[in-house]
Amino acid sequence: MSATSLAAPDGRVVDYLRLSVTDRCNERCLYCMPEGYKGWQSREDTLTDDEIVRLVQVAAGLGFRKYRITGGEPLLRRNIVDLTRRIWDVPGVEMLGMSTNGVMLEKLAGPLRQAGLCGVNVSLDALNPEIYHRVTGGDLSRVLAGIDAALAAGFERIKLNCVLMRGVNEQEIWPLVEYAAARDCPMRFIELMPLTRRDVLDESNFFPIAEMLEILRAQDEVIPVEKDKEKIGNGPARYYRLKKTGALVGVIGALTETCFCDRCNKMRVTADGKLRPCLGDALEFDLMPALRGGNDADVTNVFLAALAKKPLAHGFKDVYQPARPMTAIGG
Ligand code: 5AD
Ligand code: SF4
Fold first, then answer.
1. Which among 8, 16, 1, 14 is positioned nearest to 67, based on CA atoms?
2. Looking at residue 21, which CATH number applies to its domain?
3. Is there an atom of ligand 1 within 6 Å of 20 CB?
4. Tens digit of pLDDT for each residue in 81-139?
């Protein structure tokens, strides 16, 4: 381990930090919002811009190179363009992405690109407006306009994400692949993770990646991609190239593919300043006292404590029981 790389006790290099900048959202995705969710944080509990920039400075000093701004819906945060620019300006930040539902992207894509944002991941669970509305409660046309604006803004990479749910959006799989391929964007399909309402978390709603790949194979030849060759990031996704269409399709088999935890390079910060070493584990470390009262060494110590306890694997398999809901963490 060099002075500028951080590793968990088992040797995994951790250099990717996801920053939730708000727990609020302007959509209501079936797979995200807990039942009757009203637990919005108060403004005082939310990290300020200065606190976020400070924790990024400490994290960058420790060896975090890649950052992603998430939510809730990050574009709801006031001054998000300015905050993006300030994060990008921190020395050591080599990649800065954002995950958004795309609803407010039409006006913001250009300014965000100007501010240094390298890429956006946009949630796109359906291309049929009614199905899109059923999943998210939102208006598909605004998201499509947002994706067009992102394409025009010249981001290095725009990825589209779809969470699979049986009986809800499986007929959208092939249209989504064609839409993404026509725009030269990777299309990623994600298995439903147990982070949401009980009624959605029934095993009968679960749609496995293997079945999704069968749908693609009925249309085209599906060829596994070696990641290093195409430089498509090192997150949990595996990629396939479709021979005829040329589409690049990513899969995140959060439940049926057990082995991605050993490639996990990330930690998360919630909007109220809790550092989470693993999405699928309730363990949290509070950064707030160090950010509000302490010095940079205290902030560093919280990172190191969290790293030392980074779980070897998520607990989704064990908690995948409708009777046991989990709280929301934000995308
Ligand atoms: N299961 C799988 N993916 C989820 N996301 C949010 N909630 C879930 C869940 N329960 C993903 C969506 C969204 C991103 C922000 O997080 O893909 O695009
Ligand atoms: Fe909002 Fe994203 Fe959650 Fe949907 S998945 S409710 S868009 S935060």
1. 16
2. 3.20.20.70
3. no
4. 999 999 999 999 999 999 999 999 999 999 999 999 999 999 999 999 999 999 999 99
Is the peptide bond preceding residue 330 cis, with omega within 30 degrees of 0?
Answer: no
In angstroms, the CA 274 to CA 276 distance is 6
Note the pLDDT of residue 228.
58
Ligand 2 atom closest to 328 (CA): 3
Q: Is residue 39 part of a domain?
A: yes
Q: Mean of the per-residue pLDDT values for the chain? A: 88
pLDDT digits (tens, 9 = 90+) for 240-285: 999 999 999 999 987 787 667 777 889 999 999 999 988 777 789 9
CA of 227 to the centre of ligand 2 (A): 28
Domain annotation covers residue 181: yes
Q: How far is the CA of 1 from the centre of ligand 1 (A)?
A: 32
State if residue 27 touches ligand 2 by the CB under 6 angstroms criterion: yes
Residue 2 lies in a domain: no
Please tell me the pTM assigned to this model.
0.90
In a domain, 72, yes or no: yes
The ligand 1 atom at the shortest distance from the C-alpha of residue 191 is 2
Q: Which domain holds residue 219?
A: 16-329
**Is pLDDT at 291 greater than 90 in this prediction?**
yes
Count: domains in the chain: 1
Q: Is the CB of 74 under 6 A from ligand 2?
A: no
Nearest C-alpha neighbor of 187 from the set 178, 195, 197, 200: 178
The Cα 68–Cα 63 span in angstroms is 15
Name which of 293, 294, 303 is nearest 60 in CA terms.
Answer: 303
Please say if the pLDDT value at position 324 is more than 80.
no
